[in-house]
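# step 3/5: fold
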Amino acid sequence: MTGMADLGLTPEQERLYRRLLREPRTPPDPAADGPVLVQLRELGLVDAESTPVAPAAAVELLVRRRVEQTRRQLARLTSAWEVVAELSEEQRRGRPLQMIEHIQDGAAVTRRLSGMLDDEPREFMYMKSHARFPDPGDDGAGDDQSRFARALTRGLRSRTLFSAYALRDPQQADWARSWQARGDLHRVTTEPVRHLAIVNREVAFVQADPADPRAGALQIRHPGVVDLLAEYFDGLWNRARELDELPLTPIEQEVLHALVHHGIDEAAARSLHISVRKFRAHVADLMARLGAASRFQAAVRAKERGWL
């Protein structure tokens, strides 16, 4: 007789379930069958009245349960490959691998990033305030750019997200377009930007102190934290704009924010260091673009479009 052990039932559970199927009018013995009966109820094989579910439904429940158990076991086995990667990295570096490490020197952060992309150029996610890299005249900057360009030719999938406010400098857009032509996709966002780099969705680098760029970076290898940061980047990327699809120019963005945050035109104009006349001209242009009859309506429609 084919048993149900492969489906996860113990011999006692299987005997009671089969007996309830054969003898539906014979109630189970609370003293002898009580503990096993509770187990069958927890498995969903009998109801509160101790009536067994149909065999097809019972087998389907047990198969689903076994599949889920197998899935969890495979997930645990998959983590073994992460251990292999960790051990290999420890062997290469000659010291234990830390889940979170503070790298105080910015140049050391760049060297480590470049080394990882040299070893395995699969995916790179980069978020920063400006598009432009350090000037090639800086120590090592030209070499870093050359190494990054080589990684792109080797199949690196790279995405760079930077602040739209950087576009007040025309060279920023030119720089972004030049790298996009090489394969490093660029988008801009009006949302707050924190410096973040993620390599192959395995290692993340975040600014150690957002208020002090000289504080270096934290290198994070914890899978859960890296996954969370990657999801955060993906969300910002999906909401960001292509370089040539910006809804507003930088000055228009500033005018819109000033319009919302200042009660009078004179204060708004002073915050932008422009004349009141110039500010009002920009506001009129924005209202026309939005089809708004009032400034309040302009603010509402700007929020609906994601401009605020």
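# step 4/5: annotate
Residues 250-304 form a domain with the Arc Repressor Mutant, subunit A fold (CATH 1.10.10.10).
# step 5/5: archive (pending)
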